[in-house]
Structures are given as structure tokens and as C-alpha cells.
Amino acid sequence: MKTAASSFKHQWLLPIASGVFIGTSYIPFPPWASLFCFVPLWLFWERQSSLKNVLLGGFLTTFIYTLIGFNWVTYTLHEFAQVNWFLAGIGMILFALFGHLFVPAAGLLWYFGVKYFRWPQWLSFAQMAVLTAICEFGLPMLFKWNFGYTWYGFGLPVYQWAEFVGFTGLSMITILLNWPLLVAWQKRRELSGLTILAGVIIVFIGLNVAGLGLKNRLPEPEASFNTLLVQANIGNTEKHAAAHGKGFQTEILKKYLTVTENGLESNPDVAVDFVLWSETSFPSLLGGQYNDSYYARVLSEYLRERQIGMITGAYAKDERSGLITNSLFALDRQGTVTEPHYSKTILLALGEYIPGEKKFPWLRDWFPMVGNFAEGPGPTVLLQLNDYKIGPQVCYESLFPDFSKGLSDIGAQFIVNATNDSWYGTWQEPYQHLYMTLARAVEFRRPVVRVTNTGISTVALASGKVLHRSPLNQEWSGLYTVPYQKNPASTFYQRHFELMPSLLTVIFVGLLITGFFSRREPTE
Questions:
Q1: Contact assessment for residue 255 and residue 290, using Cβ atoms and an 8 Å cutoff
Q2: Which DSSP category does 281 fall into?
Q3: d(Cα 85, Cα 71) in Å, to the nearest integer?
Q4: Domains along the chain?
Q5: Number of H helices and number of E strands within the chain?
Q6: Catalytic residue among 317, 389, 395, 443
Q7: Could you give the 3-state DSSP secondary structure of residue 230?
Q8: Alpha-carbon distance 507 to 509, whole Å?
Q9: Burial (0-12, 13-18, 19+ Cβ within 10 Å), 218
């Protein structure tokens, strides 16, 4: 009895191990266990006879890896939502429980598949991998857990394949490669197990070698521009106050102008084509009648005197709804706002809008501290400045490949992302958000220029190469020369955007059909 009880306790170490493996293989950690991180959990599932244990194992894995990889949510709740640390901790626990339900969802589907179709073991293992990849792709999540980004963060050339399959596809492939390693573990005392392990290693090395070839065959850029990225390091207290019209506007604008001037004076021999400020860095409204406001005139006069263009984040007002928008504006060398400007479309739930508020207006009374922003027009606008075709995006819109695809489809030569990451701490989220944003450069082979309020600001070239990164939480400005194509060709991923999900669906259906004809006889 003691042996059985001990064995029962020890088996729960398997989903715990998967949680640790996944969490410590995500940015800013290296992807050391990405290719086998699901193996312990899947072994645990295979040994279970009850749905309850399968689901608990899935929840335990996601709870642990979310605590490890996304513990910055605690800091954000404290800093942005302005709740005390105890409540922030409770919020973190709830997010860890329910933020990434794709793993228990995959376990649920797999359990019923095994129960009703009586799959043999090899097919059971295959469906674990396929269902996990399908659920990771298809289930909505506030912050997607993508297993492809870490290859880019660690600099392994396999990330170059994102030009063909996207980082979504790389995430699917990473999950699927856990399947042969699961089989190799099961057969580890046999020659076939070593053969499978060697095969996976050879395939992975081959993908990386081929990735170098993909990078080296890119066309030479046709043109370049010089941009000065400005990071003024405005504190959250000041940002909050300025956003609600409670002061600090003058101090914030002065600080941005000072850091900009220092950057220009440090590069007197370089003709800067435009200056780039971060999300909502201009501490007032712009657009329409607000272009004549005091702060807008100060900025316009500065640009006219320096004869330099600018792209800046600012608030605007939506004419239809009367609500405020989180927007990006371009200003020419005369300090004149060039329309159209762009307003953020993919708003942050519980930060910039309340989900369900349109149907249940009383939610606004319950959560008055949550922002109430109007949505923008989507990836349908290019900023007009110096004849460049500039694709604008604000903050975490960069996490959605279809958004950057839309900008690429309408001819963006490069993408500008303006972000404020000051709410997230310093050691995890800034690096995660950085590589998730810069990943779009590889998928669509267009440079991505990223500027933030507190860091990390930098540029990714079409090759995926990341240029000098700004420091965190410091006033800083950096000059970048960015090569680009005037008429960039569409990538394979851009033209065949749904290829990988479609292939994964075909594999799933194929395995279902195979399973139907290879069902095990029920045991007596």
C-alpha cells in the first residue's frame, strides 16, 4: 500500500516537471527544454484512467509555467491597476490558473479521443502533440504563449523559417517535435529509441543550417533612413497624472525635447530623417483643432527650427464616439501634422476597455478605473512622412501577425512600433515583448523600428538582426541607420498565411481516420 501511495505521489512530479521545463525555456531564458518540455506531462496523461486527473495535470503544468514565465503580471497589477501587493498576488494566481487553458483543453480532447476511439499508444502520443498544437493556436488568450519566439530571443537560426511558416508555425513545429522525443523516451532501452533521438537532433541541426542559408539569400537593401529613437523614461506617476489632465504635461514635454536635443547634438554630422517618440509620449491631444493647442505649438516650433520630421505617440479624439484614442502622428519638417494619423485598434482588455461594456453598461460603474478608449481603423493606414510608406502599430498590436500582415499588404516599407512598457518590471516582460515585436521583421522581411518610454528601444532589420538595444529605465536616445527595400516583396508566409493551421488540421483529420481503422479491441 505504501508503495502504491508513493507511486501515486511521484507521478504528480511529471506535470510539475513539464511546468518547470516550459517556464524556464521561455524568454528571457534559453530554449533548453523546448523540444521535450511536454514529454513528462504526456507520460502522466498516458497513465491516467480518469478525466479529473488529466485536467488537474494540465492545470498544474500551466499554473507552474505561467508563474515562472509571466510573474510580471503581479507587478503590472500593482503598478497599473494600483492595487496592493496582496491583491496583485491573488490576481497573479488567478491568471496562472486560467491564463493558458490550451493545455488542459488539449488533455480533455485527448482523453475523450482515447476513450471513445481506443487509439493505440503510438496514435495516442501523436494526438497529444497535435491537439496541444491546435489548442495553442486556436484558443484565445490575453497573452499568447508562443514556443517559437524563444528561438529568436536566443539567436538560433531556425527562427529564419518564420519567413515561411511564421512564429506561429515555429511554435507548432516545436510542440510537434516533442512527440518523437516522447517515443524515444519510451523506447530508450532499445536501438529504435536512440535512432529516433538522433533523427530529431539531425533534423533540428538541419533546420538551423538551412536558416543561415535563408538569411544569406536575402536581397540587398535599396535605400536607408536615419532615425533618432528617444526614450525619456517618464515615471508611471507622471504618466497617470498627464493622462488624466492633472499636471506634468509641461515637465514631460520638456524632458522629451531635452533628450531629443541631446541626441541630435551628439550626432551633428548625420542628417536625421525623423525623430521617433514612444506611445502617448506627447502629453496632450493632437489632431484637428488640437493642433493649435499650446503644447502642439511648442512641438511644432521645435521641429520647424530644427528642420526635422517626427513620429510621436499622442492622444486624439474619435469624432464618431467622442472617446479618446491612443494614436500615432507624423509631423513634417515644418512641424505640421500630416494626416491621416493612426489610432490603436487592438485595445488591452481591462486596461483600455472593459470586455462586455457595450452590452452591459453598468460594468463601467463597477470598474471606473479602467480606460475607455475608442478603437482605430485596423492595419489600413500608412503614415505619410518624407515619402516613406510607414506601417504604424501601437504597443501589443505587434503580437498579432495578421496585423503586421495587413500593413505589409498595403505596401509598408517598414513598421514603426511605439510602446510604453513601464508597467511591467524589468527582467521578463520587456524582453518578451521586445522579441515578440521584432519577430514581425522576419515574418514579413521588413525592418521593425521599436521605441519605448523606458526601454527596450531598438531596430530589427529584415534579416532579423537586432541592432543596439537601449538600456532599461534610463533617459536615452539612439541614432539608427536602417536599410530597407522600397518595394519589398511579399513573403511566403504573407501569401499563405493560413498554411500551417491548415496543415495541422489535415494532420489531425488524417490521424483520426487512421485511428478509426486501427482501433484497439476493448479489453474484457
A1: no
A2: -
A3: 13
A4: 9-217+498-518 (no CATH), 223-488 (3.60.110.10)
A5: 20, 11
A6: 395
A7: strand
A8: 6
A9: middle
Global pTM reads: 0.92
279 is catalytic: yes
pLDDT at 515 over 90: no
Selecting among 144, 344, 389, 405, the annotated active-site residue is 344
- Would you mind telling me the total number of residues written for the chain in this entry? 524
C-alpha cell recorded at residue 404: 503586421
What's residue 524's pLDDT? Answer: 47
On the question of pLDDT at 246 being above 90, the answer is no
Per the DSSP assignment, residues forming a β-bridge with 313 are 328
In Å, what is the CA distance from 19 to each residue of 25, 37, 136, 360?
A: 10, 8, 15, 37
Q: 3-class SS at 302? A: helix
344 catalytic? Reply is yes
Q: How far apart are the first and last CA of the chain?
A: 26
The percent of residues above 70 in pLDDT, for the chain, comes to: 94
Model pLDDT, residue 466:
97
Give the separation between CA 84 and CA 79, rounded to whole angstroms: 9
Provide CB contacts within 8 A for 245, sequence distance 6+.
none
Q: How does DSSP classify residue 160?
A: G
pLDDT tens digits for 437-479?
999 999 999 999 999 999 899 999 999 999 999 999 999 999 9
Distances (CA, A) of 210 to 31, 161, 170, 369, 384: 19, 9, 14, 50, 38
Q: Which residues contact 493 (CB under 8 A, 6 or more apart)?
A: 162, 163, 164, 165, 166, 169, 443, 444, 499
